[in-house]
Design a protein that fits this description.
By secondary structure, the chain is of the alpha+beta class. It is built from 9 helices and 21 strands.
Length: 400
Protein backbone atom coordinates (compact mmCIF):
# COMPACT_ATOMS: atom_id res chain seq x y z
CA UNK A 1 0.00 0.00 0.00
CA UNK A 2 1.28 3.49 -0.87
CA UNK A 3 1.21 6.25 1.72
CA UNK A 4 -1.14 8.42 -0.35
CA UNK A 5 -3.81 5.73 -0.64
CA UNK A 6 -7.22 7.43 -0.69
CA UNK A 7 -8.49 4.88 1.85
CA UNK A 8 -6.20 6.14 4.65
CA UNK A 9 -7.32 8.87 7.06
CA UNK A 10 -4.03 10.66 6.37
CA UNK A 11 -5.05 10.88 2.72
CA UNK A 12 -8.60 12.03 3.33
CA UNK A 13 -10.09 8.54 3.62
CA UNK A 14 -12.06 6.90 6.38
CA UNK A 15 -9.78 4.13 7.58
CA UNK A 16 -6.84 3.67 9.92
CA UNK A 17 -3.48 2.92 8.27
CA UNK A 18 0.04 2.89 9.63
CA UNK A 19 1.88 5.28 7.30
CA UNK A 20 5.65 5.51 6.92
CA UNK A 21 7.53 7.25 4.13
CA UNK A 22 6.14 6.09 0.79
CA UNK A 23 4.32 3.08 2.21
CA UNK A 24 1.32 2.22 4.38
CA UNK A 25 -0.44 -0.81 5.86
CA UNK A 26 -4.14 -1.21 6.82
CA UNK A 27 -4.96 -1.29 10.54
CA UNK A 28 -8.74 -1.61 10.83
CA UNK A 29 -11.44 -4.24 10.38
CA UNK A 30 -13.80 -1.61 8.97
CA UNK A 31 -11.49 -1.13 5.97
CA UNK A 32 -11.67 -4.80 5.06
CA UNK A 33 -15.43 -4.84 5.61
CA UNK A 34 -15.71 -2.01 3.11
CA UNK A 35 -13.44 -3.69 0.54
CA UNK A 36 -14.98 -7.13 0.83
CA UNK A 37 -18.59 -5.91 0.87
CA UNK A 38 -18.03 -4.30 -2.51
CA UNK A 39 -16.02 -7.22 -3.90
CA UNK A 40 -18.41 -9.95 -2.78
CA UNK A 41 -21.14 -8.13 -4.67
CA UNK A 42 -19.48 -8.92 -7.99
CA UNK A 43 -18.75 -12.52 -7.05
CA UNK A 44 -15.30 -12.54 -5.42
CA UNK A 45 -14.71 -15.81 -3.57
CA UNK A 46 -10.94 -15.83 -2.92
CA UNK A 47 -8.40 -13.04 -2.62
CA UNK A 48 -4.68 -13.63 -3.02
CA UNK A 49 -2.73 -11.48 -0.56
CA UNK A 50 0.44 -11.24 -2.65
CA UNK A 51 3.83 -9.57 -2.07
CA UNK A 52 3.64 -10.09 1.69
CA UNK A 53 7.42 -10.12 2.06
CA UNK A 54 7.75 -6.81 0.23
CA UNK A 55 5.08 -5.18 2.39
CA UNK A 56 7.07 -6.24 5.46
CA UNK A 57 10.55 -5.27 4.23
CA UNK A 58 9.55 -1.83 2.92
CA UNK A 59 8.53 -0.51 6.35
CA UNK A 60 10.40 -0.26 9.63
CA UNK A 61 7.25 -0.58 11.70
CA UNK A 62 6.51 -4.03 10.28
CA UNK A 63 9.99 -5.16 11.36
CA UNK A 64 9.83 -3.58 14.81
CA UNK A 65 6.22 -3.93 15.99
CA UNK A 66 4.73 -7.42 15.85
CA UNK A 67 1.24 -6.08 16.48
CA UNK A 68 1.20 -4.18 13.18
CA UNK A 69 1.55 -7.41 11.19
CA UNK A 70 -0.78 -9.26 13.54
CA UNK A 71 -3.50 -6.63 13.22
CA UNK A 72 -3.12 -6.37 9.44
CA UNK A 73 -3.69 -10.08 8.78
CA UNK A 74 -6.11 -10.85 11.60
CA UNK A 75 -8.29 -7.86 10.69
CA UNK A 76 -8.20 -8.92 7.05
CA UNK A 77 -9.30 -12.40 8.12
CA UNK A 78 -12.17 -11.02 10.20
CA UNK A 79 -13.40 -8.89 7.32
CA UNK A 80 -13.14 -11.83 4.94
CA UNK A 81 -15.13 -14.02 7.33
CA UNK A 82 -17.90 -11.40 7.50
CA UNK A 83 -18.38 -11.73 3.74
CA UNK A 84 -17.61 -15.41 3.09
CA UNK A 85 -14.33 -14.77 1.27
CA UNK A 86 -11.26 -17.02 1.40
CA UNK A 87 -7.67 -15.77 1.53
CA UNK A 88 -4.55 -17.15 -0.13
CA UNK A 89 -1.16 -15.98 1.12
CA UNK A 90 1.66 -15.47 -1.39
CA UNK A 91 5.34 -14.50 -1.08
CA UNK A 92 4.91 -15.32 2.57
CA UNK A 93 7.37 -16.10 5.35
CA UNK A 94 6.89 -19.17 7.57
CA UNK A 95 5.83 -16.84 10.38
CA UNK A 96 3.01 -15.54 8.18
CA UNK A 97 1.91 -19.10 7.44
CA UNK A 98 1.77 -19.68 11.20
CA UNK A 99 -0.44 -16.58 11.48
CA UNK A 100 -3.04 -18.35 9.34
CA UNK A 101 -4.02 -20.31 12.43
CA UNK A 102 -5.60 -17.08 13.70
CA UNK A 103 -7.55 -16.51 10.49
CA UNK A 104 -9.75 -19.51 9.57
CA UNK A 105 -10.63 -17.83 6.25
CA UNK A 106 -6.98 -18.31 5.18
CA UNK A 107 -7.32 -21.54 3.24
CA UNK A 108 -4.51 -21.52 0.65
CA UNK A 109 -0.88 -20.48 0.27
CA UNK A 110 1.58 -20.47 -2.58
CA UNK A 111 3.91 -23.42 -2.22
CA UNK A 112 6.73 -22.34 -4.51
CA UNK A 113 8.18 -19.54 -6.61
CA UNK A 114 6.45 -17.83 -9.55
CA UNK A 115 5.98 -20.04 -12.59
CA UNK A 116 8.56 -19.60 -15.32
CA UNK A 117 8.48 -22.01 -18.27
CA UNK A 118 11.25 -24.58 -18.60
CA UNK A 119 12.85 -24.26 -15.16
CA UNK A 120 13.34 -27.80 -13.92
CA UNK A 121 14.38 -27.06 -10.34
CA UNK A 122 11.42 -24.87 -9.41
CA UNK A 123 7.79 -24.26 -10.24
CA UNK A 124 6.52 -27.83 -9.84
CA UNK A 125 8.54 -29.18 -6.91
CA UNK A 126 6.14 -28.66 -3.98
CA UNK A 127 6.25 -32.02 -2.19
CA UNK A 128 8.21 -30.65 0.78
CA UNK A 129 6.50 -27.29 1.26
CA UNK A 130 3.12 -29.02 1.06
CA UNK A 131 3.98 -30.85 4.31
CA UNK A 132 4.33 -27.56 6.18
CA UNK A 133 1.25 -25.96 4.64
CA UNK A 134 -1.01 -28.98 5.13
CA UNK A 135 0.08 -29.36 8.75
CA UNK A 136 -1.42 -25.89 9.31
CA UNK A 137 -4.59 -26.63 7.36
CA UNK A 138 -3.66 -24.81 4.13
CA UNK A 139 -3.99 -26.09 0.58
CA UNK A 140 -0.82 -25.51 -1.48
CA UNK A 141 -0.98 -23.52 -4.71
CA UNK A 142 1.62 -24.63 -7.25
CA UNK A 143 1.06 -21.47 -9.31
CA UNK A 144 0.12 -21.26 -12.96
CA UNK A 145 1.45 -23.25 -15.93
CA UNK A 146 1.21 -23.39 -19.70
CA UNK A 147 -0.85 -26.33 -20.95
CA UNK A 148 0.88 -26.46 -24.34
CA UNK A 149 4.47 -26.36 -25.57
CA UNK A 150 3.68 -23.68 -28.14
CA UNK A 151 2.44 -21.01 -25.72
CA UNK A 152 4.94 -18.22 -25.03
CA UNK A 153 5.15 -14.73 -23.56
CA UNK A 154 5.26 -12.23 -26.42
CA UNK A 155 6.08 -9.11 -24.38
CA UNK A 156 9.83 -8.42 -24.72
CA UNK A 157 9.78 -6.96 -21.19
CA UNK A 158 8.67 -10.29 -19.69
CA UNK A 159 11.29 -12.09 -17.60
CA UNK A 160 10.66 -15.25 -19.63
CA UNK A 161 10.08 -13.63 -23.04
CA UNK A 162 9.64 -16.24 -25.77
CA UNK A 163 10.23 -19.18 -23.41
CA UNK A 164 8.11 -22.29 -23.92
CA UNK A 165 7.07 -25.09 -21.57
CA UNK A 166 8.40 -28.49 -22.70
CA UNK A 167 6.53 -30.53 -20.09
CA UNK A 168 2.97 -29.29 -19.45
CA UNK A 169 1.96 -32.81 -18.38
CA UNK A 170 4.17 -32.73 -15.26
CA UNK A 171 2.73 -29.37 -14.21
CA UNK A 172 -0.80 -30.66 -14.71
CA UNK A 173 -0.15 -33.82 -12.67
CA UNK A 174 1.45 -31.88 -9.81
CA UNK A 175 -1.43 -29.38 -9.83
CA UNK A 176 -3.93 -32.23 -9.57
CA UNK A 177 -1.98 -33.94 -6.77
CA UNK A 178 -1.71 -30.68 -4.81
CA UNK A 179 -5.43 -30.81 -3.92
CA UNK A 180 -5.30 -27.03 -4.26
CA UNK A 181 -6.23 -24.50 -6.95
CA UNK A 182 -5.40 -25.23 -10.60
CA UNK A 183 -4.54 -22.24 -12.76
CA UNK A 184 -3.70 -22.70 -16.45
CA UNK A 185 -2.14 -19.47 -17.75
CA UNK A 186 -2.24 -19.80 -21.53
CA UNK A 187 -3.37 -16.88 -23.64
CA UNK A 188 -7.00 -16.73 -24.74
CA UNK A 189 -7.67 -19.56 -27.17
CA UNK A 190 -4.29 -21.17 -26.56
CA UNK A 191 -5.13 -23.79 -23.93
CA UNK A 192 -4.98 -27.56 -24.30
CA UNK A 193 -8.58 -28.39 -23.40
CA UNK A 194 -7.91 -32.14 -23.38
CA UNK A 195 -5.21 -31.76 -20.73
CA UNK A 196 -7.31 -29.39 -18.62
CA UNK A 197 -10.28 -31.76 -18.67
CA UNK A 198 -8.08 -34.48 -17.17
CA UNK A 199 -8.13 -32.34 -14.03
CA UNK A 200 -11.85 -31.82 -13.56
CA UNK A 201 -15.43 -32.79 -14.25
CA UNK A 202 -17.34 -31.49 -17.24
CA UNK A 203 -18.59 -28.47 -15.26
CA UNK A 204 -15.08 -27.56 -14.06
CA UNK A 205 -15.33 -29.10 -10.59
CA UNK A 206 -11.77 -30.08 -9.66
CA UNK A 207 -11.04 -33.74 -8.91
CA UNK A 208 -8.84 -33.86 -5.82
CA UNK A 209 -7.21 -36.36 -3.49
CA UNK A 210 -8.06 -36.10 0.21
CA UNK A 211 -4.78 -34.31 0.97
CA UNK A 212 -1.88 -32.83 -0.99
CA UNK A 213 0.78 -35.21 -2.23
CA UNK A 214 3.88 -34.89 -0.03
CA UNK A 215 7.39 -36.31 0.07
CA UNK A 216 7.42 -39.79 1.58
CA UNK A 217 9.02 -40.28 5.00
CA UNK A 218 12.17 -41.98 3.70
CA UNK A 219 13.02 -38.79 1.79
CA UNK A 220 14.19 -37.17 5.02
CA UNK A 221 16.09 -40.25 6.13
CA UNK A 222 18.06 -39.98 2.90
CA UNK A 223 18.58 -36.22 2.87
CA UNK A 224 19.44 -35.83 6.54
CA UNK A 225 21.30 -39.05 7.33
CA UNK A 226 22.37 -40.39 3.94
CA UNK A 227 20.46 -43.63 4.51
CA UNK A 228 18.46 -45.61 1.97
CA UNK A 229 15.65 -43.71 0.29
CA UNK A 230 14.64 -41.95 -2.93
CA UNK A 231 17.31 -39.97 -4.74
CA UNK A 232 14.79 -37.55 -6.17
CA UNK A 233 11.13 -36.74 -5.74
CA UNK A 234 8.71 -39.43 -4.56
CA UNK A 235 5.38 -38.26 -3.12
CA UNK A 236 2.14 -39.92 -2.15
CA UNK A 237 -1.42 -39.13 -1.13
CA UNK A 238 -4.75 -40.94 -0.99
CA UNK A 239 -8.52 -40.90 -1.37
CA UNK A 240 -10.80 -42.76 1.04
CA UNK A 241 -14.39 -43.56 0.05
CA UNK A 242 -16.41 -45.46 2.61
CA UNK A 243 -14.24 -48.23 4.06
CA UNK A 244 -11.68 -48.28 1.24
CA UNK A 245 -8.58 -46.24 0.43
CA UNK A 246 -6.83 -45.69 -2.90
CA UNK A 247 -3.28 -44.32 -3.03
CA UNK A 248 -1.46 -42.11 -5.52
CA UNK A 249 2.30 -42.33 -5.96
CA UNK A 250 4.29 -39.71 -7.88
CA UNK A 251 7.92 -39.95 -8.96
CA UNK A 252 10.07 -37.45 -10.83
CA UNK A 253 13.75 -36.72 -11.55
CA UNK A 254 15.12 -39.76 -9.73
CA UNK A 255 18.85 -40.28 -10.01
CA UNK A 256 18.42 -44.01 -9.30
CA UNK A 257 15.41 -46.34 -9.48
CA UNK A 258 13.36 -46.44 -6.29
CA UNK A 259 11.25 -49.31 -5.00
CA UNK A 260 8.07 -47.92 -3.42
CA UNK A 261 6.88 -50.40 -0.79
CA UNK A 262 4.18 -50.82 1.88
CA UNK A 263 6.12 -48.85 4.47
CA UNK A 264 6.24 -45.84 2.16
CA UNK A 265 2.51 -45.24 2.34
CA UNK A 266 2.35 -46.29 5.97
CA UNK A 267 0.12 -49.32 5.41
CA UNK A 268 1.26 -52.29 7.49
CA UNK A 269 2.41 -55.21 5.38
CA UNK A 270 0.18 -57.40 7.55
CA UNK A 271 -2.92 -55.50 6.37
CA UNK A 272 -5.83 -57.80 5.54
CA UNK A 273 -6.54 -55.77 2.40
CA UNK A 274 -4.79 -56.80 -0.81
CA UNK A 275 -3.73 -54.17 -3.32
CA UNK A 276 -2.89 -53.85 -7.00
CA UNK A 277 -1.25 -50.98 -8.86
CA UNK A 278 -1.08 -49.52 -12.33
CA UNK A 279 0.61 -46.55 -13.91
CA UNK A 280 -1.64 -43.77 -15.15
CA UNK A 281 -1.87 -43.89 -18.94
CA UNK A 282 -3.64 -40.95 -20.54
CA UNK A 283 -3.91 -42.38 -24.03
CA UNK A 284 -5.42 -45.83 -23.48
CA UNK A 285 -7.13 -46.61 -20.17
CA UNK A 286 -8.03 -50.18 -21.18
CA UNK A 287 -4.45 -51.25 -21.84
CA UNK A 288 -3.42 -50.80 -18.24
CA UNK A 289 -0.89 -53.24 -16.84
CA UNK A 290 -2.40 -54.08 -13.46
CA UNK A 291 0.05 -55.73 -11.05
CA UNK A 292 -0.07 -57.02 -7.49
CA UNK A 293 1.30 -54.81 -4.73
CA UNK A 294 2.65 -57.00 -1.93
CA UNK A 295 5.13 -56.86 0.92
CA UNK A 296 7.67 -58.45 -1.47
CA UNK A 297 6.88 -56.59 -4.70
CA UNK A 298 6.29 -52.86 -4.78
CA UNK A 299 6.45 -50.24 -7.54
CA UNK A 300 9.79 -49.60 -9.20
CA UNK A 301 9.93 -45.91 -10.15
CA UNK A 302 12.51 -45.38 -12.91
CA UNK A 303 15.31 -42.86 -13.30
CA UNK A 304 14.35 -39.49 -14.73
CA UNK A 305 16.68 -37.19 -16.64
CA UNK A 306 14.37 -34.19 -16.63
CA UNK A 307 11.19 -33.03 -14.93
CA UNK A 308 9.35 -34.37 -17.95
CA UNK A 309 10.16 -37.89 -16.71
CA UNK A 310 7.29 -37.90 -14.23
CA UNK A 311 5.17 -40.90 -13.31
CA UNK A 312 1.90 -41.26 -11.43
CA UNK A 313 0.71 -44.62 -10.12
CA UNK A 314 -2.61 -45.63 -8.57
CA UNK A 315 -2.70 -48.30 -5.86
CA UNK A 316 -6.19 -49.85 -5.59
CA UNK A 317 -7.64 -52.15 -2.93
CA UNK A 318 -9.00 -55.54 -3.87
CA UNK A 319 -12.56 -55.32 -2.57
CA UNK A 320 -13.91 -58.15 -0.37
CA UNK A 321 -15.87 -59.71 -3.25
CA UNK A 322 -12.82 -59.77 -5.56
CA UNK A 323 -13.80 -56.74 -7.66
CA UNK A 324 -11.23 -53.94 -8.11
CA UNK A 325 -12.28 -50.38 -8.87
CA UNK A 326 -9.42 -48.80 -10.84
CA UNK A 327 -10.96 -45.36 -11.09
CA UNK A 328 -12.35 -43.01 -13.70
CA UNK A 329 -10.72 -43.19 -17.10
CA UNK A 330 -8.99 -40.10 -18.46
CA UNK A 331 -8.53 -38.30 -15.12
CA UNK A 332 -5.31 -37.84 -13.13
CA UNK A 333 -7.21 -38.11 -9.84
CA UNK A 334 -9.27 -41.06 -10.95
CA UNK A 335 -10.82 -41.72 -7.54
CA UNK A 336 -12.11 -38.50 -5.95
CA UNK A 337 -14.88 -37.65 -3.50
CA UNK A 338 -16.04 -34.93 -5.87
CA UNK A 339 -17.01 -37.71 -8.31
CA UNK A 340 -17.70 -40.78 -6.12
CA UNK A 341 -19.68 -39.91 -3.00
CA UNK A 342 -20.24 -43.46 -1.74
CA UNK A 343 -19.13 -47.01 -2.51
CA UNK A 344 -20.45 -50.25 -1.01
CA UNK A 345 -20.00 -53.90 -1.90
CA UNK A 346 -22.18 -56.98 -1.81
CA UNK A 347 -21.19 -60.59 -2.42
CA UNK A 348 -21.09 -60.05 -6.18
CA UNK A 349 -21.46 -56.32 -6.86
CA UNK A 350 -19.94 -52.88 -6.36
CA UNK A 351 -22.46 -50.08 -6.06
CA UNK A 352 -21.40 -46.45 -6.09
CA UNK A 353 -23.00 -43.03 -6.18
CA UNK A 354 -21.56 -40.95 -9.02
CA UNK A 355 -21.83 -37.16 -9.38
CA UNK A 356 -21.42 -34.88 -12.37
CA UNK A 357 -23.22 -32.69 -14.85
CA UNK A 358 -26.49 -33.92 -16.40
CA UNK A 359 -25.70 -36.12 -19.43
CA UNK A 360 -21.97 -36.21 -18.62
CA UNK A 361 -20.48 -39.59 -19.55
CA UNK A 362 -18.19 -40.94 -16.82
CA UNK A 363 -15.97 -43.91 -17.70
CA UNK A 364 -15.52 -46.24 -14.73
CA UNK A 365 -12.77 -48.87 -14.89
CA UNK A 366 -12.91 -52.19 -13.07
CA UNK A 367 -11.21 -55.55 -12.84
CA UNK A 368 -13.73 -58.33 -12.45
CA UNK A 369 -12.90 -61.13 -10.00
CA UNK A 370 -10.26 -63.38 -11.55
CA UNK A 371 -9.90 -61.23 -14.69
CA UNK A 372 -6.53 -60.38 -16.21
CA UNK A 373 -7.52 -57.14 -17.95
CA UNK A 374 -9.77 -54.18 -17.07
CA UNK A 375 -13.22 -53.34 -18.37
CA UNK A 376 -14.76 -49.89 -18.67
CA UNK A 377 -18.39 -48.90 -18.22
CA UNK A 378 -20.00 -45.64 -19.26
CA UNK A 379 -22.17 -44.04 -16.60
CA UNK A 380 -24.24 -41.20 -18.05
CA UNK A 381 -25.21 -38.82 -15.26
CA UNK A 382 -28.94 -38.20 -14.88
CA UNK A 383 -30.85 -34.92 -14.72
CA UNK A 384 -30.33 -34.58 -10.98
CA UNK A 385 -26.53 -34.62 -11.33
CA UNK A 386 -26.39 -37.88 -9.35
CA UNK A 387 -26.55 -41.48 -10.50
CA UNK A 388 -26.13 -44.91 -8.92
CA UNK A 389 -23.88 -47.37 -10.72
CA UNK A 390 -23.89 -51.17 -10.43
CA UNK A 391 -20.71 -52.92 -11.60
CA UNK A 392 -22.41 -56.32 -11.81
CA UNK A 393 -25.07 -55.03 -14.20
CA UNK A 394 -22.97 -52.31 -15.80
CA UNK A 395 -25.89 -49.92 -15.39
CA UNK A 396 -26.28 -46.37 -14.15
CA UNK A 397 -29.60 -44.99 -12.88
CA UNK A 398 -30.58 -41.47 -11.98
CA UNK A 399 -31.18 -41.06 -8.25
CA UNK A 400 -33.43 -38.01 -8.56
Amino acid sequence: WVSNTPYAQSGGGNFSFSVEGKWAIPQSVSFWDYIFANASGWGLETIKQDHINEQILMMNVTLEDVYVLHDWLVQQGIGAAHHGIHIEYCMEYPSIIMMSLLTPTSTHARAWDDYKPNLSSVDWNIGATSIFLWALGLYPDKDTFYTTSSERATNPQALFFNWTEPYPLTHAIVSALSAGPITPSDGVGGSNKTLIMMLCQQDGTLLKPDAPAMNIESTWRTRSLGLEGPQGEVWNTQTTIGQYTWYYVFGCMLQAPYEFVYDDFLVPSSSATSYVWHEYVASDSLNLKVQKFTSQTGITIPVGKSYGDSHIYIVSPVLPNGWIFLGEGGKFISIAKQRISNLVTSSDDVIMDVRGSPQEAVWLMFMKPGASSPVAYSCVIGRSGRSRFSAQNGTCQDTE
